[in-house]
Known about the structure:
Layout: E1 2-4, H1 9-16, H2 19-30, E2 33-47, E3 52-65, E4 71-81, H3 87-98, E5 102-103, E6 111-112, E7 116-122, E8 133-136, E9 140-142, E10 147-149, H4 154-157, E11 162-167, H5 178-182, E12 191-192, E13 195-200, H6 203-206, H7 210-222, H8 226-273
Parallel strand pairs: 4-7, 7-11
Antiparallel strand pairs: 1-13, 2-3, 3-4, 5-6, 8-11, 9-10, 12-13
Amino acid sequence: MILANPIYDVVFKYLMEDTEIARRLLSKITGEDIIDISVEPQEYAGRSDKFEIIILRLDFRATIKTKDGKRKKVLIELQKGKNSADIMRFRKYLGDNYRKEDASETDKKKKVALPIITIYFLGFRLANVLTSIMKVNREYIDLITDKKIDAKEEFVEKLTHDSFIIQIPRLKKKVRNEIESVLKVFNQSYISDGDRKTLEFSEKDLENDDLLQLIASRLRKGATEEELLRKIEIEEEVESTIEGHIREKQVLAEENAELKKRLRELESQLKNKK
């Protein structure tokens, strides 16, 4: 079974625009009972002479059913990053979301801040964290007694947030829990015959998990859509061009550093001759 590779932003967006898949996948990752969700794609376009570069992030307004049966609205910010330099972009978008307001549940004319949950899909490995899926959890600690405070306070909840980090290169073929099983479709070990645009799975790889099969069905459909495949090629070309510019700058920087070193050596030699 050939699937479009969600490592590409255009495929990732295509997958998550299916709100049922988004609701169930985000529920699985966060461990929250998400009963309703709406997606708000946020794209920032940058233009050059040759390309229009699209930077993707997805914001979801979700309704969560809490353990005590109550409902609360949250903003789920989902981003993908290809390298550690993306951290400044992550911070900027997070700041944007902290400024957002939503209608109050009790008074539609009143605007309130929503609690935020962030999820990051990373296309690179973090140096010091070896697990594929990590939750950065908040705790309230009483610094007088050093004990954990079990109560939750709206003021605090809206000023801080939980984060989930998925390191795609650290996903294992031999899955270790339900979340990693669902995220199998992001595992780059399944690249199809060296073609990064698609992944290849057997029916056995996807059995016993209806959410995984639903995701695979959407990505299988995506692998046959010419427009989506064309966008993947454009994304590859843009990345290749950007990487080429980065390599050129690195070479120039190295040559400049070597030249400065040589000049210092010559200056030192001239001083010694005097």
